[in-house]
Amino acid sequence: MRRTGLAIVAVAVGLIAVVAVAFALTPGEAMTVGENSFVNREGIIDVSNSPTMAYNPARPGNVITTYRKDRPGYGGFIGYSFDSGATWEQAVLPVPAGTSGCTASQGELCPFGPDATFGPDGTLYVTYVNLQGNGNRPDNLWLSTSTDGGRTLSLPTKITGALAFMARVTVDPKGPVYITWLQADEVGLFRFAGKPPKILVARSDDGGHTFAPPVTASDAQRERIEAPSPVIDASGQLVIMYEDLKANRRDYEYAPGPAAELPFALVLTRSTDGGRTFTPGAEFETDILATRRFLPFLPELPQLAASPSGKLYATWADGRGGDDDVYLRSSADGGRTWAPPVKVNNNGPDGTAQFLPKIDIGPGERVSIVFLDGRNDPGAKKKLDAYLATSTDGGKSFTNVRLSTKSFDDDIGPTFGVEYGIDFGTRLGLAHGGGKLYAAWVDTSAGSTATGRQDVNSATVTLPTEGPRTLVLGVIAVVLLGLGAAGLLRARSGRGTPSTRTDAQNRQVVTS
Length: 512
Known about the structure:
About 15% of the residues lie in helices and about 40% in strands. The protein has 4 helices and 32 strands. It has helices at about 1-25, 250, 465-495, 505-510; strands at about 30-35, 35-40, 45-55, 65-70, 75-80, 90, 110-120, 125-130, 135-145, 155-160, 165-170, 175-185, 185-190, 190-195, 200-205, 215, 225-230, 240-245, 265-270, 280-290, 305, 310-320, 325-330, 340-345, 355-360, 365-375, 385-390, 400, 410, 430-435, 435-445, 455-460. The strands form 8 sheets. Strands 1, 2, 30, 31 and 32 form a 5-stranded antiparallel sheet that branches. Strands 25, 26, 27, 28 and 29 form a 5-stranded antiparallel sheet that branches. A 4-stranded antiparallel sheet has the order 3-4-5-6, with no helix packed on it. The radius of gyration is 28 Å and the shape is globular. The two termini are about 10 Å apart. About 45% of the residues are buried.
């Protein structure tokens, strides 16, 4: 019996060694980045940026990217793909006949600032404004839909009138469609004027054909707010994060000077009754330090996301560490308490900038963030790349991978003045589906300082599977169970057979 037990132990130890070798040899947390592709149509002096991405849950391989065009003229477009982002086609965002155009486009129609998402049935919802007149002011806020993956779009529904900024569309899986935007009272040259802007939300219960009157989601006492980021959490409630610039009058009023010295705050509010009322805003991050000037109409947008398990994640970039880095905070109790900030980019303190983060949750609880990154040019600090960071431990740690195949210059594109640097847009795009991640970013590699060209590039990232390791573990588990069963049967067999030896003989066997 003892020899049998020792044999079983030896086999078990051997299997543990096999497990270690198997885990060393089988694939682990590795991602495959596909080729970079142009989403927009190529133009010598065209400026395209600020993408948003969405994956169609009802049609495998169908992914869309909306983006804004800043030159020549202003415009908004949607790129659609039916081969997981390998190739892209374009569609123009529709504006009703008789709508006024904008001066920047020589009187042509100017749809602008699009945002999009899919509903669970595969309906695509796209919201955008049209710019009008000499000041290129937002004139109307629209919602259009598509039932063929973005190839064609319906005539749009008007949601509200003039001076709607930073519009976002969110779809509740149970049916309601929400449009969230920053509503200005008046505007001046590159600044808000009149009464302080407020964040409004309008709800539709018929797929975007009609909308209820908008309600206010922001706090009245906050005078300098912007950048709403709405999500539907795991409980089905609408949660909105926005930014409070606090004492930063310089950027909000287009005043001269360096980047703001005082920090901004992130504020969270939620609706427990389907967007009819909202809780008072709660500040959960109060140390956001800007390193660059920006226009209040076109800020870099902090991002909020919700996971299937109910966690909330907020990401942004700031200069608290001496240079721009990307940070993440998470909440497991609906935003009542938050974990400390985690640095997402894993380069050291090299003085390079990481900015414009966009977050996506999935598949499952995987946390992924795409951002622009200067780590590959720490000396001259003139080159950028697109990077993707992913986490499988709830945002506690991140793996970083490079998405762009070629570094690109950071001095190509439009600017609003020497103090402002180059405008790379307000956000990047990221979505998941079919075991892949889909990323889109602004890229200047096809441009020069003479042309100022910016493009929206994309890449598809194939995520790792646990198949090989799962198979190894399964085989070993079966073998161990078999050994355990064999040992049990052996023990029972030994107890069931009476010994014919004398006590002395039995003692001799035990001690031999």
